[in-house]
Amino acid sequence: MKGPLRGSLLVAGTTSDAGKSVVTAGICRWLARQGVAVAPFKAQNMSLNSFVTNDGAEIGRAQAMQAAAAGVEPEAAMNPVLLKPGADGRSQVVVLGQAVAEVGALDYRERKPALLRIALDCLADLRARYDVVVCEGAGSPAEINLRDRDIANMGLAVAAGLPVVVVGDIDRGGVFAAMYGTLALLSAEDQRHLAGWFVNKFRGDVRLLKPGLDMLEQLTHRPSLGVLPMLPGLWLDAEDSLGLAGLLDRAPGAAAVGGEVLRVSVLRLPRLSNFTDIDALAQEPGVLVRWATRPEELADADLVVLPGTRATVADLAWLRERGLDAALARRAAEGRPVLGVCGGYQMLSRTITDQVESRAGVVAGLGLLPVRVEFAAAKTLARPVGSAYGETVAGYEIHHGVATVEGGQSFLDGCREGAVWGTTWHGALENDGFRRAFLREVAALAGRDFTPAPDTSFSAARERQLDLLGDLIETHADTDALRRLIEGGVPSGLPFVPPGAP
Fold first, then answer.
1. Is 122 noted as a catalytic residue in this protein?
2. Which residue, 110, 271, 365, 382, has fewest beta-carbon neighbours within 10 Å?
3. Which Pfam families match (predicted)?
4. Which residues contact residue 274 at a Cβ distance below 8 angstroms, ignoring those fewer than 6 apart?
5. DSSP label at 477?
6. Coil, helix or strand for 501?
7. Inter-axis angle of helices 210-220 and 175-184, nearest 10
8. How do the domains of the chain map onto residue ranges?
9. What are the helix and strand counts (H, E) for the chain?
10. Catalytic one of 342, 399, 415, 476
11. Average pLDDT for residues 130-144, to the nearest whole number?
12. pLDDT tens figures, 98-113
């Protein structure tokens, strides 16, 4: 480390899924390795993947992951505004970790000035307590139709005096046009904050890219701060469904102890939430995890998982439309394993009474568990700890549905009936001992010669992923330039680049 470092930086992107979350986490890890007290921040996040902090606040999973990269405990100030889209074109607004309203896009727009003040207060608080705060933008900073009330990109950067770096995804093609176009669409005031570029997901020889980088610098008067290579198999708490495509496109590094592969089908629900629950299964050696949307994709599965959803009743209707309800009923009758988590657990119940989320009243569930569910206005946010199969299990809860168990066996505050399990606990499968014990029973019920690897550590695997991100920045970014931006703030004298200047 070259001396004390204090300041802030905002990481924006040319598009959603350009790599903002990854670069933000990588910078946090790189700085934390040097002994810098660093925190992540995202003023506004739209995501169905969320996490519960120790004090019962709900924030985006990406910010929890970035906090882990920084080596600090996640807190509500790191993601003061979280939007959770629903089935009706409306979103639940979570402010400082608590749900406050259900709004449409135009209604939400009217709330933004007040939310910007909250975000700025949270950012100022983090800056007072940490040496460096690495902020992540949302979507693109060049969404000119939304700029007048932006609270996550240039609106935040201008209000808080932040230098901005922009990440472009070269794997999509057109990265130079996306970068130049991003700058050219910004006002002179906003352009003053944009200080450099990251090219992300590059494959091949960087020397072939250099002429384009040189031209981009000449045209924009902003330097390239690094060309980050594609990291095959990277998995880290994706923010939204754009991260689903590559989520299961990876293979564990070791074979199963037993002689067979255990096959898991996960229902890809339309409003799928907290799909990070399956990460631990996908990392287990010898377990093959795949998405499913049709009955035939469940036929040879040893385990079917119904994951969480932001719209239980609407996704239950979707499931029935496709005949998946009958396929699940056949599995249960045959004693073949099914696991429901949170919204998936609610679907397995006998009845669902919902005057809160869908306002559909009483709806028949799948009837595979002896449970009644009634939605409450208040959201349950908790970090429960319990036991199952003789193993300690820690998880987290985020739900409006309150389940009343009327029979079966107790299972992680949910229940089990035959080969069907249900729980409200997210994150349970991240507990290594519990996961292995559960998979052993699944294998026995499925008649598989499968034994989980005895030494697989999900937390260690996640730490290795975070270290890869730190390595990415340390090896491929201009870290001296990053330090100067963080410490020096918004560069002076950057020229305005009008549209069509070339």
1. no
2. 110
3. CbiA, GATase_3
4. 48, 49, 50, 61, 307, 308, 341, 342, 398, 426
5. B
6. coil
7. 10
8. 7-235+463-488, 255-455
9. 14, 27
10. 342
11. 96
12. 999 988 888 888 999 9
Its pTM surpasses 0.85: yes
Q: What's the token pair of residue 61? A: 């999973």
Q: Tell me, what amino acid is at 177?
A: A
How, if at all, do strands 194-202 and 132-136 pair? unpaired
Q: Tell me whether domains 7-235+463-488 and 255-455 share a fold.
A: yes
Q: What angle do CA 85, 273, 315 make, to 5 degrees?
A: 80
Nearest to 223 by CA among 188, 183, 173: 183
Q: How many CB atoms lie within 10 A of CB 87?
A: 18
Superfamily of domain 7-235+463-488: P-loop containing nucleotide triphosphate hydrolases (3.40.50.300)
Beta strands 194-202 and 164-169, pairing class: parallel
- Assess contact for 11 and 23: CB atoms under 8 A: yes
Question: 3-state secondary structure string, 386-446?
Answer: EEECCEEEECEEEEEEEEEECCCEEECCEEEECCEEEECCECHHHCHHHHHHHHHHHHHHH
Mention the CATH class of domain 255-455: alpha beta
Token pair, residue 277, equals 């629950």
342 is catalytic: yes
What's the confidence (pLDDT) of residue 275? 86
Query: Which residue bears the tokens 């070791």?
Result: 254
Q: Which pLDDT belongs to residue 2?
A: 52
Amino acid letter at 275?
F
Which whole-number Å values give the CA distances from 344 to 273, 309, 330, 406, in the listed order? 10, 7, 17, 18
Among candidate residues 13, 12, 51, 5, the one with its CA nearest the CA of residue 30: 5
Candidate from 108-112, 264-268, 287-291 with smallest mean pLDDT: 108-112
